[in-house]
Amino acid sequence: MKEMKSNKSTKPIKVLVVDDSPMMCKAIEQILIADDEIGSITKALNGQEALKALSTQKYDVCTLDVHMPGMNGLTVLKNIMIKYPLPTLMVSAFTAEGSKVTFEALRFGAVDFFKKPTRNGDGDLIEQAHILRAKLKRASRVQVEAARYLRVKPKASIAKSEGSSLHKFKGISILYGSTGCYSSLLSILPHLNDSLKTPVIIAMDSSRENILAFIDYLKSYCIFPLKLADKIEKLQSRTIYFIPEGYAAYFDKNADYWEMTVEKRPIETEGEGAIDLTLLSASEVFGEALLLVVVSGDNQYGLTGTKEVLRNNGTILVQAPRGCLAPSTPQIFLDKFNTTSLEPYKISQKICEWGND
Known about the structure:
Elements: E1 13-18, H1 22-32, E2 38-44, H2 47-56, E3 61-65, H3 73-83, E4 88-92, H4 96-107, E5 112-115, H5 125-140, E6 172-177, H6 181-188, E7 200-204, H7 208-218, E8 226-228, E9 232-234, E10 240-243, E11 247-254, E12 257-264, H8 274-286, E13 290-294, H9 303-311, E14 315-319, H10 328-337, E15 340-342, H11 344-353
Parallel strand pairs: 1-2, 1-3, 3-4, 4-5, 6-7, 6-13, 7-10, 8-10, 13-14, 14-15
Antiparallel strand pairs: 9-12, 11-12
Helix pairs in contact: 2-3, 6-11, 8-9
């Protein structure tokens, strides 16, 4: 992925690794020291050791185990964000319970999460190591002052009689983000209310597995159906579709309903990503009925597609950069397109109003 250049110093990244397993601490250390951009690594085997280390020296980023005896990961995170605000990457075994706590951690200010490295049938360890290093470096560059506790309350789903429809919508919304976008989405999606009439497409820089876990977590807080888009979808109003990293969506009118086809992006082009293909198709099909919302992120994708959105009279909104964990992408969209920036609750309102004319 082509990332935005950081304004922060290029000095080696100082990392605090917190895990109750000495073996896991060593494994994470070995993964991280293979990268020249990562400098010193301090290990802590419990929450007390972690907080003591933070009280004596400064770090650029922390990896934090979700489940630890005594002071668990969530409690440690709360203490970190209050006493020693620091970009934090949660490391989880990602069981059903582990994933719930992991997403709770995102509500309390964690930047992102990563499944614990393992050789037990969970894919290529080399690829896992590459992803962990990339996530850690991106996390180290976020503006931690934007992290805040997100208050969301469990909600009942919409009544079946008031539910989705293949036919009755006049527009579509697409939200796009990368690093820090989980926090943005947790600030936006739970506040979508019953006035929403359109489908909502979420294109995010995350794997299918992680998105499925996120959807499961969101079900308690969002009143609308949530779905990982797969192959060919008949678009329904008042439904939220998620598109994983590296997949593009193509739109077409089929008989009396809209159809969305989701496919792995076939080629890599410098400066363009899957989101560009999604926006090119959506802008051509929906024109002025398309609303694009850009949230927290740190890459340069989407600019080509956004030009087409504007050429076809679509509308662009950007999350206010000061509230983004990673403000680079929203800021470049503001600079290039001179569009409107809004706080998350205002974005929720605009999405709900979209297509209601």
